[in-house]
Amino acid sequence: MPTYTAPDGTRLAYRLHGEGAPLVCIPGGPAGSRYLGDLGGLSAHRQLILLDTRGTGLSALPADPATYRCDRLVDDVEALRRHLGLPRMDLLGHSGGANIAAQYAARHPHRLGKLALISPGTRAVGIAVTGEMRREPARLRKDEPWFPPAFAALEAITEGTGTDWEAISPFFYGRWDSAAQRHCADGRPGNEEAVAGFAAEGAFDPDATRAGLARGAFPVLLHTGEFDVNSPPQPVAEFAALFADATCVVQEAAGHYPWLDDAERFTASTAAFLA
């Protein structure tokens, strides 16, 4: 697995899938990039360069835990671009990784070709996801056998009285079958310090990020799932409105990992944007 050195000397790893024009991919979590797989076959269209952010996957633990902070991870992405020798790059961020990608785009707009934000987190731009925004896609699953306990857990979490995140896992997938359950178990973040440090004080400056994004001239795809309680369609549409050239796609019957729920539909939409 190839590696490179971050500005502070931390050794970072990345995986390669496919051939063709490179697409740098930032996972959420923070977790290693393995859960992204080959993004439903997107590697047939682009060479995927899938970063393990510091302290996850095969990347090393940093000497300073403060560098787990989202805004500081932007420097690791820029170091990867330089390592790859790319004057400009196309960038994809999933979930929490979209917060890194958005801050990168705000700071380095001249280094971007195209930006794809998949099931994006919105904290970097200060868009709040309310409890009702999460309940709306959740209620679409009311006929599922697992719905009653999962919805009760979601209600408790949104009201601040519960923390049973495992109970709401079915809401993150279009089908809560054995493949989804394996993916859920295999993709859980393993570095609690990285998770805690990601959103530490100072990690986000929404005003500065919004101002930077407004100056960018790059095309943007925002793609989320109809069922996604983490990145519901409403706040993702608000996110899209911040860009001068944005395409917003809501994938029918998909959750937080749309390439798993319908790989053909996800790949067709994303590959067409990147072409």
Layout of SSEs?
Blueprint: E1 3-5, E2 11-17, E3 22-26, E4 47-52, H1 70-84, E5 89-94, H2 97-107, E6 112-118, H3 131-139, H4 147-158, H5 178-186, H6 192-198, H7 206-214, E7 220-225, H8 233-240, E8 246-251, H9 258-261, H10 263-274
Parallel strand pairs: 3-4, 3-5, 5-6, 6-7, 7-8
Antiparallel strand pairs: 1-2, 2-4
Helix pairs in contact: 1-2, 2-7, 3-4
Terminus-to-terminus distance: 27 Å
How would you describe the oligomerization state of the chains in this entry?
single chain
Q: Kindly estimate the percentage of residues that lie in beta strands according to DSSP.
A: 15-25%
What is the helix content? 25-40%
Biggest sheet strand line-up = 1-2-4-3-5-6-7-8
Low-confidence stretches: none
Mean pLDDT: 97
List the total number of helices.
10
Structural category is alpha/beta
Q: State the total count of DSSP E strands.
A: 8
Envelope shape: globular
* H and E order: EEEEHEHEHHHHHEHEHH
What are its keywords?
eight-stranded mixed beta sheet; alpha/beta; 275 residues; single chain; 10 helices; 8 strands; 35% helix
Structure in words:
The chain has 275 residues and is α/β, with parallel strands linked by helices. 35% of the residues lie in helices and 17% in strands. It has helices spanning 70-84, 97-107, 131-139, 147-158, 178-186, 192-198, 206-214, 233-240, 258-261, 263-274, and strands at residues 3-5, 11-17, 22-26, 47-52, 89-94, 112-118, 220-225, 246-251. The protein has an eight-stranded mixed β-sheet with strand order 1-2-4-3-5-6-7-8, with helices on both faces. Helix 1 packs across helix 2 and helix 3 (131-139) packs antiparallel against helix 4. The model has no long low-confidence stretch (mean pLDDT 97).
